[in-house]
């Protein structure tokens, strides 16, 4: 995105709504067609990123799981099997798209789109650096939380429309799980909002620059007694929100065959797949922006974005790196832990995460008052 | 505890003036076929479950999808020719099946087996028990949702299989223990490799223990789930780890020693409800885990005795080439990894059995499923089926 | 381990985090270990010397005694041959049906000549079931050596027959002379020899029925005397094999017809 911004603008705008947003806004000045073009360009961009990252992550997941299990993982297509996921994507595209005869056809076809749409839009709100942000609104976090929870509708639709009992189970589990985990998820977001006094992820990142060793202002270090547990709670809730193991109940392979996407095949199935990995990134990026210092490089004082091209690039790189580390942890957890049972999922949420998140929130309020 | 739509929407006053709760939302149990094509029914078991939300109200196991008439085949092939068929009832413990069958034929035909052959039989039986329990461990992890232990279990099992491959040439269906003896003697160097396997295996066992057995989620998923009280276990004729998991100390190797099991020392682990209730899934699982260690212990003793007491090559007993069993009846049970594998043989003087009845442990253990499943959750059902550790090849035979 | 109240709550958190960390430690350590799997088509898994894979037959040693065929529990070996004088076998088929074979090695141990073995070849994926019926023979019919041996054996037999005839003649002449000399009858001697002939005849006649099943056997035209000869040993085995053998024969015929 930054690159695109550079190419088209020649110079970098650094203040406020800038970068790619700037171009799009510029385009929009040309009336309806300009809007359309802007929308299409924006969509293409987003979709590109939203599907490129999952390709990387699927590769990483397979490779990492392979190595953890003393297997090789993908190693045939491309160096280290890097384009294996791409090859699989192409394969999925050419596979037959089976729609069960008894399925609710319209909902069945629409559901994967809804699931993916929410996730792709959420991408637009993730700031990778000061200027590399597609949409920077003052309601960023709020919007992201809303978009992320849009997914549950798609999943329920998919489960219901498949007309398969296992899918239905998956959908119900998803509904129960998502709705419950919105609470600790939201509480942790609130904690961040209380700390920064803003809902914009960009501003949160900016606020975390500097400090001791350039990490001192990171929320988890700035407010270690409350923000650190909150970050953990947020991470766990994020796992549940993205349906990652050990919270992969909606698609629990050994229980529900494949859960809500049992009946999906081909391209539509790949939508669910993309969504899962895309959401891993989005959620990691939010966590990084909120708690882990955003795009600020640790231990290198003064490396905060200075407005130079190099600085921007470094920021994007740092942000991606941090998110990838979190994605790796998600993968790592998946290949280590067994799955939780649905009632335990609930009790974990209501008995553990929600109280902890609450306590952290109150503590943070106090901390901020004291500070 | 029940979920579902039993919502007490509004209250009405009945004629007597008492309040009555009226169900306004009507719900219906959902009937689902779990299997035969289901990832965690361990083969082609089909359980027709009725579910009220996540809670099962009824479960009926159906089986017979891979019935292969093993007992009938036995009546039509001669005694040696039936050995490969015994491999195929519990294909994860083919050696133990071979052994059970060989023992009954030997009992009926009054054959003597060379001591070396007996020691080797014990070795292969215990080694196969480890292999079988490794699968039980791995697939159980998989049922609960942990993938990696499965691969780790297979890593060691692979070694076990290659040991067997060196011994008899096959990796799964060994056809190694024949009535009256063995197919081969051990190749040179085999015992040394086996000793190395034992050493490595014990280290890996600790890893399994840390990775899965002591994992909090795993414990939460398995403790207090699928509790089989000792009485119920006996009523249903459970054997093997399912019975011992309920605290009943019954192991054929100990209670009715065959081969030279009376000459080696080992412990019979029983479930004590370490994590929850006695006889829950965790207990059954843990009994298997401990049994693997005990098998290693037996293996070490057997190797030592075998190397010390016998000379290589002396595996021939007093068996004649064509085996005929007189008009007689015999029963022999062996402790398979899954429980007591019994063979009942009726001979008629010819070279093939008049009748051979197989008592498969998985089949009997499966019967308790109907009792255990109602009232549990779907995820628990998977955990329970996994903890009973059935092999459908043996259930259906 | 017994806790209560808030301690349970805290303890659960501690246990969960700790055990997760321990587990993650184990998986993380494994990431840096060497994979244990084989890259199949490139690295082939080494097989043990005793591996029981695809069979191979040392055909020149095989005496076509059908012991292997008889030992197989699933009847997947099919042997068709024609026995010529001098125990020369004219091979038509020694096929193994890998659709049925379960690699139990039961066919290998009873072989008197130790000529059928299970080899190291594995991987039997084929496109057709019929491709899994593998003929193990390295040659079919008769080799030059065999023709030679048959000829020799025939000559030998002729010679022997002639000798026998000569002997008989001499004996008969002797007997006649003796009979003339003494009135005692030599019936006691000739009796058994006459009874022996009919006894062997039914054995020989039994396989007369399956005889036409052996294809080309007659067409190749060993004299009728020869066929009778060559069927004899087979007939003996037939008896031993009983009904099982009959089954394989029947199948063989069908398949032969199909081709
Ligand atoms: S290996 Fe067994 S099944 Fe195969 S041909 Fe030989 S005896 Fe028959
Ligand atoms: S047992 Fe041996 S000699 Fe006899 S037919 Fe078979 S391969 Fe040939």
Could you explain how this protein is built, in words?
The complex is a heterotrimer of chains A (371), B (397) and C (259). Chain A has 14 helices and no strands. With 371 residues, chain A is an all-alpha fold. Chain A has one domain. In chain A, helix 2 packs antiparallel against helix 3, helix 3 packs across helix 12 and helix 4 packs across helix 12. Chain A starts with a helix and ends with a helix. In chain A, 55% of the residues are buried. The N terminus of chain A is likely disordered. Chain B is an alpha+beta fold and 397 residues long. Chain B has a single domain, classed as Orthogonal Bundle (Cytochrome-c3 Hydrogenase, chain B), CATH 1.10.645. Chain B is built from 15 helices and 10 strands. Chain B has a 3-stranded antiparallel sheet with strand order 3-4-5. A 3-stranded antiparallel sheet of chain B has the order 8-9-10. Chain B has a two-stranded antiparallel sheet with strand order 1-2. In chain B, a hairpin with a 2-residue loop joins strand 4 and strand 5. In chain B, helix 4 runs antiparallel to helix 14. The radius of gyration of chain B is 23 Å and the shape is globular. The relative contact order of chain B is 0.18. The N terminus of chain B is likely disordered. A 3-stranded antiparallel sheet of chain C has the order 2-3-5. Chain C has a two-stranded antiparallel sheet with strand order 1-4. By secondary structure, chain C is mainly alpha-helical. In chain C, strand 2 and strand 3 form a beta hairpin. Chain C is rod-shaped. Bound molecules: iron/sulfur cluster (2 copies). The site of one iron/sulfur cluster (SF4) has 13 residues of chain C, from loops. The site of one iron/sulfur cluster (SF4) has 14 residues of chain C, from helix 2.
Q: What oligomeric state is this?
A: heterotrimer
What structural class should be given to the helix and strand makeup of chain A? mainly alpha
Rg of chain A to the nearest angstrom?
A: 21 Å
Bound molecules: iron/sulfur cluster
General shape of chain C: rod-shaped
User: In this structure, how is the largest beta sheet of chain A organized?
Assistant: none
CATH topology of one domain in chain C: Alpha-Beta Plaits
Low-confidence stretches of chain C: 188-259
Q: Overall pLDDT of chain C, averaged?
A: 70
Q: Strand percentage of chain C, roughly?
A: 5-15%
Find the biggest chain interface.
A-B, 31 and 30 residues
């Amino acid at each position: 995105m930054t690159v695109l911004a550079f190419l088209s603008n020649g110079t970098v705008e650094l203040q406020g709504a800038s970068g790619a947003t700037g171009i799009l806004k510029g385009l929009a000045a040309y009336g309806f067609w300009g809007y359309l073009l802007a929308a299409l360009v924006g969509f293409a961009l987003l979709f590109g990123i939203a599907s490129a990252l999952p390709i990387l992550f699927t590769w990483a997941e397979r490779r990492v799981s392979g190595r953890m299990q003393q297997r090789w993982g993908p190693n045939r297509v491309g160096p280290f099997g890097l384009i294996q996921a791409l090859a699989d994507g192409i394969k999925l595209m050419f596979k037959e798209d089976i729609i069960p005869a008894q399925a609710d056809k319209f909902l069945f076809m629409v559901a994967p789109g809804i699931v993916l749409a929410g996730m792709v839009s959420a991408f637009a709100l993730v700031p990778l650096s000061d200027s590399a942000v597609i949409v920077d609104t003052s309601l960023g976090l709020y919007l992201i939380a809303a978009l992320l929870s849009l997914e549950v509708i798609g999943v329920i639709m998919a489960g219901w429309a498949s007309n398969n009992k296992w899918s239905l189970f998956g959908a119900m589990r998803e509904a129960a799980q998502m709705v419950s985990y919105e609470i600790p998820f939201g509480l942790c977001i609130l904690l961040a909002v209380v700390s920064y006094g803003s809902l914009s992820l960009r501003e949160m990142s900016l606020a975390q620059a500097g400090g001791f060793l350039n990490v001192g202002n990171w929320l988890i270090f700035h407010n270690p007694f409350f923000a650190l547990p909150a970050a953990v709670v947020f991470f766990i809730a994020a796992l549940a929100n993205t349906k990652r193991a050990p919270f992969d109940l909606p698609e629990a392979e050994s229980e529900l065959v494949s859960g809500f996407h049992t009946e999906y095949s081909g391209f539509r199935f790949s939508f669910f797949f993309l969504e899962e990995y895309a959401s891993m990134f989005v959620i990691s990026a939010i966590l990084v922006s909120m708690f882990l210092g955003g795009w600020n490089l640790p231990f290198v004082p003064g490396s905060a974005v200075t407005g130079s091209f190099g600085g921007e690039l470094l920021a994007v790189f740092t942000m991606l790196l941090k998110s990838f580390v979190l994605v790796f942890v998600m993968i790592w957890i998946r290949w280590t832990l067994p799955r939780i049972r649905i009632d335990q999922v609930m009790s974990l949420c209501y008995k553990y995460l929600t109280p902890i998140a609450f306590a952290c929130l109150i503590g943070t309020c106090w901390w901020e008052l004291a500070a | 505890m029940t979920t579902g739509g039993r919502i007490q929407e509004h209250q009405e006053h009945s004629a007597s003036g008492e309040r009555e709760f009226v169900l306004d939302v009507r719900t219906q149990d959902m009937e689902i076929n779990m299997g035969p094509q289901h990832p965690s029914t361990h083969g082609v078991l089909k359980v027709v479950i009725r579910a009220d939300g996540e809670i099962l109200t009824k479960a009926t196991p159906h089986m017979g999808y891979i019935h292969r008439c093993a007992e009938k085949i036995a009546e039509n092939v001669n005694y040696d020719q039936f050995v490969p068929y015994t491999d195929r009832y519990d294909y994860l413990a083919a050696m133990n099946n071979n052994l059970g069958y060989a023992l009954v034929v030997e009992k009926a035909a009054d054959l003597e087996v060379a001591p070396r052959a007996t020691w080797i039989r014990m070795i292969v039986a215990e080694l196969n028990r480890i292999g079988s329990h490794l699968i039980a461990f791995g697939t159980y992890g998989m049922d609960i949702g942990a993938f990696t232990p499965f691969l780790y279990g297979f890593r060691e099992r692979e070694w076990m299989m290659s040991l067997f491959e060196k011994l008899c040439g096959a990796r799964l269906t060994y056809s190694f223990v024949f009535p009256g003896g063995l197919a081969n003697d051990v190749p040179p160097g085999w015992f040394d490799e086996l000793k190395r396997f034992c050493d490595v295996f014990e280290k890996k066992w600790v890893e399994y223990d840390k990775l899965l057995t002591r994992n909090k989620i795993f414990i939460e998923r398995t403790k207090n789930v699928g509790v089989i009280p000792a009485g119920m276990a006996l009523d249903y004729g459970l054997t093997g780890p399912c019975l011992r998991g309920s605290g009943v100390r019954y192991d054929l190797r100990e209670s009715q020693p065959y081969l030279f099991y009376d000459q080696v020392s080992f412990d019979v682990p029983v479930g004590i409800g370490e994590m929850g209730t006695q006889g829950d899934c965790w207990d059954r699982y843990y009994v298997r885990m401990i049994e693997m260690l005990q098998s290693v212990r037996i293996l070490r003793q057997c190797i030592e005795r075998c190397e010390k007491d016998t000379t290589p090559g002396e595996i021939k007993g007093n068996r004649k080439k064509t085996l005929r069993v007189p008009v007689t009846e015999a029963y022999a049970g062996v402790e398979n990894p899954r429980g007591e594998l019994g063979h009942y043989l009726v001979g008629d003087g010819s070279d093939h059995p008049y009748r051979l009845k197989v008592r498969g442990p998985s089949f009997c253990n499966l019967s308790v499923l109907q009792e255990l499943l109602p009232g549990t959750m779907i995820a628990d059902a998977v955990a329970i089926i996994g903890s009973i550790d059935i092999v459908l090849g043996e259930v259906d035979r | 381990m017994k806790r209560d109240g808030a301690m349970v709550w805290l303890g659960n958190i501690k246990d969960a985090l700790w055990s997760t960390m321990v587990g993650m430690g184990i998986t993380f350590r494994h990431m840096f270990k060497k994979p244990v799997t084989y890259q199949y088509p490139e690295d082939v898994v080494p097989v043990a010397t005793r591996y029981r894979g695809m069979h191979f037959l040392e055909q020149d040693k095989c005496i076509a005694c059908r012991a292997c065929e008889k030992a197989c529990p699933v009847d997947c070996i099919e042997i068709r041959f024609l026995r010529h004088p001098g125990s020369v076998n004219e091979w038509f088929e020694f096929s193994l049906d890998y659709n049925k074979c379960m690699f139990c090695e039961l066919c290998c141990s009873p072989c008197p000549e130790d000529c059928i073995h299970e080899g190291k070849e594995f991987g039997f994926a084929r496109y057709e079931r019929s491709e899994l019926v593998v003929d193990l023979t390295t040659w079919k019919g008769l080799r030059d050596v065999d023709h030679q041996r048959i000829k020799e054996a025939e000559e030998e037999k002729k010679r022997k027959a002639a000798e026998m005839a000569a002997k008989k003649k001499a004996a008969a002449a002797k007997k006649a002379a003796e009979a003339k000399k003494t009135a005692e009858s030599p019936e006691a001697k000739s009796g058994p020899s006459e009874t022996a002939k009919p006894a062997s005849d039914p054995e020989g006649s039994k396989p007369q029925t399956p005889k036409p099943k052996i294809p080309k056997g007659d067409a190749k035209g060993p004299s009728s005397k020869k066929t009778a000869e060559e069927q004899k040993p087979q007939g003996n085995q037939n008896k031993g094999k009983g009904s099982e053998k009959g089954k394989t024969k029947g199948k063989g015929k069908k398949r032969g017809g199909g081709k």
